[in-house]
Amino acid sequence: MKTAFHLIATSALLGCVSGEGFDDPELDPQTADDASALPSSVAPGTHAEPEPRSSLNYPVVSCPNARLIGVLDPGQEDCSLAGTLPGGWNAIRMFDTGSPDIQSLGVPAPGALGRYCMYEPEAPSVSQQDYIDLFDQMHASGMISLNSVAPDCLGQGTQGTDLYDTVVREGLQEAFGLNVDRVDGIDLGSTVGFRANVDLGVIDSTSGSAAAGHVTPINEHGLQIAAIIEDLACPSHDPSCIDNLNHFIALPRTAWDTPPNWIEGGHQGTQGDLAMAVYAAVRDWNERLGGPGGSERLVLNLSLGWERGLGEPIDPSRGPMRSLQSALEYASCSGALVFVAAGNNPSPGCEDETETAGPTEPAAFENIPAPDSATCTSLGFTPGGSLGRPVFGGAAYRPLVYAVGGVDEHDQPLINARTGGQPRLVALGSNGVGGVSPNLHAALTGTSVSAAVASGAAALIWSYRPELRPSEVAELLYDTGYATGDAADFGGGVPNAVRRVSVCAALASACAGKPSYSCPQLTCTASAPATDGNLGTFFFEVDTVYADVVAAETLESFDQSSDLGTPATCGISSWDSLLDPQPETPICSHCSIDVPKGGSSGDDQLTMDVDPLYKGDISSATLVSYDASRAATTYVLDSSTITALNRSTTDLVSVTLDVPDTISAVLEFEVDKGGRTTTQSNPITVRSE
């Protein structure tokens, strides 16, 4: 069986595994509530006797030519199997030399991380017999159990005179800042000089070289997320704050079967790639502790994930998943605060969402408790923290990671929200625009944006209150957030009230009672969303552009108010459809729909301006709109509309519809490029007046 795992940003991770696991006292996975339980046939602290050759349970390799990750038995240190590794394979100590970021550290992996081995094929094509020879030798060596070995596979990334004028993006950025209660540099005043250094690790699609401008990244998602984080964590945009933001690449591939590009990056990654990126970020931070520019606090942002519900379940006892959990445990033991995007539904227009229900991984790791100091020591990880910068204790709720869900400008779940996938902590996830004008990124919508909001807010708080424990910072974000009225689906002892992050309210609470010269005294509190979503400036600029386009006669208009078209066909993606990742640039990031209140039938207007990157490649487009009860209305845009969207001389395309009760909507595009077809879901902004 082939297993596909979709990523929720523009990037993805995939794992293909099967078979039974085993208990290991040093690497004992504290599996998530919904993860497969480890077998009880082997007592803790023991290992089964080697199986006879005839009964070997080979790991299933359902993704051809994939590398393998396994875990050495306790007391073993040689990934090369004492020199008996079959020809055609390279053995790599995963957390010593697995990636350029790790190699640059020049230090051995601590504790449990030292037992992970990667086996890379030397040739681009690997036969079944090559895998069998390697498995046989692993078994014969007595150094590594086949029950710990699995392929480290890949998956697709799915996440966010024209509407791309700077003033339009500025309108969206203004709304975004107001809706997250962003704190400005003026609010901080002279207290900026009293801020402590806080490191921010953006684990995404961008390498350090690409972030520094030495090369152009293949996928700009990491830069877009970092810009949102920077706007919140560094309101004054002072270099001393910005310099603490570092990029670590977890998505180095452009297709599931291509080698990693550690400099320009890509759209995809594996569980192993993500595990190495997490370790590199934490170890790099640890190595700089006490040095110039070093920081005693670290926030990690993971705006990515993979689908848990498709195909075979991931076995948490095997190498790929275990390596990621071990890396996150190392991060937790060191004192890092980790925020993870809860995940998006890649096909929100589909009625059957059973395959995309619940949170994605590793957001579901919030169901795993963080290790305490004694557990960290048993894992071989030195417990982090110091007298004035504690890590352990504090808040009673200490999960391994903090999942962050998304809401829109009206505190409604995002249009691409996952059924049963909302955690207790949410943040605005729609129309996220980061950067400094005029160099603003395109708007993104999804839980990738929400995780970035939480990460930026946490870094800002920690810079003023570095004595707070990681769990205390996370709980402060939650406690000062606005209660949306919904209940969480997972994490924190469900049921739990869902609360939306308010940056200003969190900082105000953190600085309450502190000296005003060193901590800003703010009066803000989390509040209900604005009735217009603070989108007034954005829609004013859209109307201005629309009038200009009408005057220039570069508007094409169509009327489909009486034709609903054919409902879209929904289905789970096949392996072949995962070969092309979802591009990082939204097709229609500034599209909107006007729904006049009390209007007449057929007076609702969809306005579209396609990014030039996609003109000529769009084969179909479907609008799915939702009312307050989540009832959907589907419009399949007709061929004349598609032709207009693809025409390079057309500035705007307007379509008249009949969707009088719409509160949210998504455009689902199908794109034909290079002989392959991909799809992209674009949430769009709704104006109801």
TrEMBL record:
One MF term in the entry's GO annotations: serine-type endopeptidase activity
PROSITE patterns in the record: PROKAR_LIPOPROTEIN (PS51257)
Annotated GO biological process: proteolysis
CDD domains named in the record: Peptidases_S8_S53 (cd00306)
InterPro entries: Peptidase_S8/S53_dom (IPR000209), Peptidase_S8/S53_dom_sf (IPR036852)
Ranges of residues in domain Peptidase S8/S53: 265-481
Region annotation (Disordered) ranges: 24-56
Domain of life of the native organism: Bacteria
Protein name: Subtilase family protein
